[in-house]
Write the structure tokens for this entry.
Amino acid sequence: MQRSGEFCRLGSYKPNKIKKNSGAEGESERHACRLLGQWRRTQRYAAIQRIDEETLTEAIVALASEYGRFGYRRIAALLQGDGWQVGKDRVQRIWRREGLKVRGFD
């Protein structure tokens, strides 16, 4: 059970379990969230897919393959220099999602 001020960890995030279980058996969303130990807000959160996400991902992968020794911060600076309105946190999220790594010295 979570105390106030604690947040659910990504590993314990189970959005579909509550929607499948609640309602049919007369169980409320509040009760189901309490049983699973997660915040009710996580059930209502809908991720927004940005329009330029695919083109940005392609640009990040292209720059990472061209400049193998650059990390996500430097790639973010290159993107900003090219006119992208993007922050290092968003580049880092895409960097991790794509499984990119900085190459070592050859």
Notes: The CA atoms of residues 63 and 75 lie 7 Å apart. The chain has six helices and no strands. The radius of gyration is 20 Å.
